[in-house]
Known about the structure:
The complex is a heterodimer.
Chain A: E1 10-15, H1 19-28, E2 37-42, H2 50-58, E3 63-68, H3 79-97, E4 104-108, H4 114-131, H5 145-159
Parallel strand pairs in A: 1-2, 1-3, 3-4
Chain B: H1 6-10, E1 13-18, H2 24-30, H3 35-42, E2 44-47, H4 56-61, E3 67-73, E4 76-78, H5 79-91, E5 92-98, H6 100-104, H7 106-109, H8 116-126, E6 141-144, E7 147-150, E8 154-159, E9 169-171, H9 178-192, E10 202-203, H10 259-262, H11 280-291, H12 297-307, H13 311-315
Parallel strand pairs in B: 1-2, 1-3, 3-5, 5-9, 9-10
Antiparallel strand pairs in B: 4-8, 6-7
Amino acid sequence: MSENGFEPKIIAFLCNWCSYRAADLAGTARMKYEPNVRMVRVMCSGRVDPSFVLKALALGADGVMIAGCHPGECHYLEQNYKAMRRYYMLRHSLRALGIEDERVRLQWASAAEGAQLASAINEMIDQVRKLGPLHWRQNWSENGDHREAISRMPEEHREAMEVPA
Amino acid sequence: MTEQSPANKTKPKLALYWAASCGGCDIAVLAIDDKILDVASIFDVVLWPVAIDAKVRDIERMPDQSIDVCLFNGGIRNSEQEYMAQLLRRKSKILVAFGSCAHEGCIPGLANLYDREQIFQYVYRDSPSVDNPQGIVPVPEYQAPEGMLHIPVFYDTLKTLDQTVEVDYTLPGCPPEADNIWAAVQAVVAGLGGAPLPPAGTVIGKDTTVCDECARARNEKKIKAFKRTWEILPDSETCLLEQGLLCCGIATRAGCGALCPKVNSPCIGCHGPNSGVEDFGARMMTALASVIDANTPEEIQRIIEDGIPDPLGTFYRFSLAHSMLRRSVLPGGNGRALPLTESPVPEVSR
């Protein structure tokens, strides 16, 4: 745990054929990795639309991992290449919004790579813990001084000078 | 048009309002040509700041739900606009988000890449056309010798109309096309006569994308490099995206008749996403990722970074304020915010 008690929430999208099995393998082999990650199984990393990642961040995730089969080993031939292109496209946009690269990670993990996936998860959690919370929704709430201004308006309109007809 | 003549009492009431917008939507209403006379004869126009002299306090005194239709254009940039959105919501039976600013924030929404302080710094101090030696910026309260003066509070983040109040219908476009405006007016008139109205939340327009209305020939899309519009002279027969131009038609709601591709200019996405899509930019990213012809990280990054120097201006030109992330990281945003509740409009005594 970090000094200020912050524990990141990471959403991980794992492909059914490689990465989710890697996570299973890590489990059956009793490998330990940190409990900050919430896993979502998808059929393929190519199923992960950028909007899944954006939504996770907007709803309070501190980071998102997309994990799939190694390039060339996709169960659906080449959809992980599509995932890779989407990932770089998304990273390009997230940088422009000021979101650090470490918060969204693309990870290849074959069904035999339980240990590698576990260490990638630990590494990512560590990086995001250092970055601190994202708290994205707080970016768009105003600091409150507008409320008084709004409540004042009907009175101001009443006081406004009546123009004689 | 505001006098309460006996004839006006039986006419349905129409209000048009503008918030953070350029004024183009008000002009677009006039693009329905002589049908504007029909609008004036069908409706009693109770509020339209660009055209008639009606007072907000008259609206405040009206009973709730007494305006039949309100066409509201513009985003919510300050407290006065939020007040008007809440007021008109309360007074109107049908509230229509009219045009891209009210729908998605549009160009004013791109200011969500900055905060109030940065915007003021540029607009009131740094802009080359500004002469402001004392560095004066607007403050919501100012003590003048005559008394306390108030101006609206400027927000850090522009909101869309549906992020502020409940919206019944949305008329997309920057600005909406005359045909769609007229169709919407006719639908509303039919609805007032008892015909069934579309379900609340409907975006008036087509469900498909601009590609559906575009006559250009489409073949296999494989792109090695994206081009800016000034770099090539596109041929007028082939899909613009296939020619390397970043055409947003693939993600944009149809309804305009592919106006821009028709004149050799790529679609820039002013109608927002097609039905069922929440985040326009994510849709664009997905679609473009599928057509990039590269499989190594280095080449993919080169194509993306060289070809799309301004990803947000490209993917979110009209929709940043309405996207899932709504804005960039707000400096000092983390932890400083208040709970996410909004105060209701205070009751006005009549």
